[in-house]
Model the fold of this input.
Amino acid sequence: MLKATGISVRFGASTVLEGVDFTASAGQITAIVGPNGSGKTTLLKVMTGEIPGQGSTHLNGSDIAALSPVDMARKRAVLPQAGNVAFPFTVLELVRLGLTSGLATNDADHLDHLPERALSRVGLDGFGGRYVQDLSGGERQRVQLARVLVQIWEPMLDGEPRWLFLDEPVSALDIGHQLIVMQIARDYARAGGGVVAVMHDLNLTAMFADRVTLLGEGRVRAEGRPAEVLTDHALSACYGCVLRTNTLPPAGGPWILPQATGIHP
Amino acid sequence: MVALSQMDEGGAPAIRPGDRRARARGLRAGLAVLLGFVMLVSLGWGAADDTRVLAAIGARLGLAEASLRDITIIWDIRMPRMVTAALVGASLAVAGAVMQGLFRNPLADPGLVGVSAGAGLGAVAAIVLGGFLPAALAAFTGAYLVSFAAFLGGWASVIVLYRIATRGGHTSVATMLLAGIALGALTGALTGFIVYRANDDQLRDLTFWGMGSVAGATWAKLVAAGPIIACALVAAPFLARGLDALSLGEPVAAHMGIHVQKLKRIAVLTVAASVGASVAITGGIGFVGIVVPHLLRLVQGPEHRTLLPNAALLGAILLLIADIISRTVVAPAELPIGIVTATLGGPFFLWILLRNRAILES
Ligand SMILES: Nc1ncnc2c1ncn2[C@@H]1O[C@H](COP(=O)(O)OP(=O)(O)OP(=O)(O)O)[C@@H](O)[C@H]1O
Ligand SMILES: [Mg+2]
Done:
């Protein structure tokens, strides 16, 4: 269980988050959606201990303020929205950095093979010997995901769920790899782990998320199952454009179609 | 071909694409052998009096017989000089690698960005102001005082530089280099001011030392500065895991379980200790700190756990070779070693700059 209560963040005079409550359960994908600048990344940073904020965050019952970096690394891994690499690492060397700490096992043989398994999982078989700086944007994003997966490969540790925090994990990916990555997240959750993902693609969110939190201007605008949150009214108000929500025939999930005309004044 | 590349002699694990650790281990073995060889050459082995050199080395260890004169030349003149060159070379190369990891920037070098100048200011201040101490006390504290003051000067410089060049965990290359120039100029001016107040005896010390030289190496100076360098060399490998993680940025390193503030504090101390103690014995010797890590990264990749030990070995080798060159090109006179490293390192640095244009222009 991830539970953040009363999160407020100010940068100078501007209030970026105002009294945000957020919960996520293990075994589920919890999506955070909202327009640019609504505070999604900031909320993720507070909940992963990267930046301070008012309020408190509890991960599996422990206050994250009281956890050491190593304890945190054992419980959760974080895929940032953007990142750069200072030196010319190969793909294998970068993914292997995921083994820095917080490992579930000391089994050297198992750990030794994890980077390749993670690369294979994100569709980068045979990329180990390439230089990271020579990869395309989408390939690089998947390399980083492989590194994150290596850190907390087993979704459960000592009977506790581990957590994946993903900031726009599919933003640079083609449609096929979007599905692959979302499926990785779903498998992780189904195996007992927790997944918190910041998303821009509302249809993928509707398809894969178990719960959705809609942020607007630093506050929670709606929270619930995708069908409850992703409504014409809530979305159009929050994103400032006209969106039509429909129901997908077999499963009954929503799908969202933006309207080219009638941008809100 | 595929089968061949995946097989490996002697039952070693198969070569994995992108894994350069095996190569780094091989390189380490090769460098260690080369270092031993260069050390012997530095003691005079390979010149006409081969057997006398070996005998003199062995004599103090009770392994051979040699004349007192030979033993004195080897053990009290050549040996401290050889050990100084090796230790300072290792120390400067490791300081460069750690600093580049700390600044996340392959162009950070203690000599280029004013850290050596800061250490030099500390050392010069200690030499000149030490002259005001009672003679007996000065003789006792002299070398230690110089080492410690150089350490303090280097430490202050790294901290000031880091504060100026790094914001929100991101180091700007341009700011770092320009701040380094300013810092170097300022500490250089202060050094000049103090030198101006020095007496003639001190002055001769200071000029030769200012160009970087291992000629004045003595066991006494080594005893004062060696332990500090040794501490830094021992501490450096413990930084490797953290510096590797830091390559991905401070937030990511923290997410991976690294205590980033602690890492940075220890890295700064390590750089200051190794640069400060080196400058205290030999003065500012440039370019070792940037050339060695750069060459190694090309061959074996940027992982600090293999980079740092190999940098120590290659740094020692390079400075020993530079010392041999400095003693032979204008023999029987000799060049300050700093001139040799600058002559070799300057063009190399320009080459690195050209290779890193993309970083500089971003
Ligand atoms: N370090 C900072 N200093 C000042 N303002 C900041 C800082 N970080 C974020 N902000 C501001 O906070 C607001 C929310 O930023 P945040 O990155 O959380 O948005 P987001 O919802 O993730 O947007 P996007 O969809 O573009 O990623 C923005 O207006 C941003 O300008
Ligand atoms: Mg964001």
Observations:
- The CA atoms of residues 76 and 163 of chain A lie 4 Å apart.
- Chain A touches chain B at residues 45, 48-50, 68-70, 72-74, 76-78, 80, 83-94, 97-98, 100-102, 116, 126, 128-130, 151 (CB under 8 Å).
- The longest helix of chain A spans residues 175-190.
